[in-house]
Design goal:
- It is a single chain.
- The chain is of the alpha/beta class.
- The chain contains 18 helices and 19 strands.
- The strands form five sheets. Strands 7-6-15-16-17-14-18 form a seven-stranded mixed sheet.
- Strand 6 and strand 7 form a beta hairpin.
- The longest helix is centred in the middle third of the chain and has 16 residues.
- The chain is globular and about 65 Å long.
- The two termini are 14 Å apart.
Amino acid sequence: MTTVAVLGGGIGGLAASYYLCKSPQVTKVIVLESSIRFGGWLWSTRRSDGAVFEHGPRGIRPAGAVGHNTLNMVDDLGLGGEILPVTYSHVASKNRYLYVNRELHRMPSGISGLLRTVLPFSRPLLLSVATEILVKKGKEDDESIHSFVSRRLGKELADIAVDSLCRGVYAGDCRKLSVRSCFPALFNAEQRRGSLTLGMLLGSGPAPVVPPGPLAQRSVEESWAQWSLSRGVESLPESITEYLQRSGRVQLHREAAVQRISPSASGWTITLEDGVMSADHIISALPAKALSSVLPASCQPLIQLLQDISTVTVAVVNLEYEGSVLPVEGFGHLLPSSEDRGLLGVVYDSVPFPQHNRPDGQTTRLTVMMGGAWFQEAFGAPEAVTEERLLARATEAVSSHLGVTTVPSWSRVTLQRDCIPQYYQGHYRRVESMRSFIKEKSLSLSLIGSSYDGVSVNDVIFGGRTAAEELLGTV
């Protein structure tokens, strides 16, 4: 294995390149990114006065093998000193809200919260959990998240809590999203243990094992719920990029959109606007539809499968207010689709990460998320909507939900086009079929990124590691 081309310089492509660099088997890695910057959706604005705003992912979870894996990478890159941890005992971890019937409701937490009836729910949540153990196992090989939760925990929980959660995580509709692909731990718990409760208590099956390094061990000892970095999460792709440049084995190309890839005797020929490259193997970290448009006609079955993976567009509106304007302390609030289809939720950024506020004078930073699966319905075509309209909608929501009467002192509107893939029912079968086709045709091609095996930062980084290991053995 001499030359590996990595298509896409988002966090997945960068992570794959980082792991490839760990192996002496690779002499050259070529990273091809179509835009002017590396890092993809990990994108932070650092203002000259010290304030930091995130336009994509913000807090990253440390839990599990994939969480440990990311922290091991952070440690290796020398970013440990920049970590901003948020513990489970922090008010941002304990207080999460739902906005239902035009009111904020704190989500129940702890045993007392589960034992009492807490609005907007009509009965104690512990009742739903206690009776779940008696529910028969589903017979389907996949199911929508809404159907799965309705069946096991009741329709009310599915309609309010789970609907809101899916909008917060996937900006998607829980009535279409696959439980098997979006929440595999829940699906596996039912399959292996017959119950979510037993699955949580006894484990829901084999999981990858990543030995925790010093930083990951610290996250366990100090009970972190999430973490960020002092200069924003974009510090992670920036550090990987610097690491790759220092390695001497990686060519990093910005504004290098791939026009076409064609199998050749030695691997692949890659056609760019201004020339041609060859590689022994391709790791594609491109979104599924972008990859489908550059594959040769001989890959028609794969092209069709890739085109079947939908994505949604999210408007991210960062706001800064002078003073302390929040009526409650917490991570933020989500809305079920029955409350307001166009508005997904509001994150109270200043609560988990006050370090990102400008150092002088009290301010409140908020992020309003809008659109997702409902973008077209709420705002029309993404290319036609104006920033002014999105900003007005966001500030109006902050005013009506949180009672904030002042206007923001600073704002930024970012339209993240096609940013979150939607794992609809049967997604796992589509991905299996793609990889079977690649194997049958002996294509030296790996598929990574959020289109396939998980949309979280941790999942995407771990996918990059997995692809490198499948190619080269342990890295």
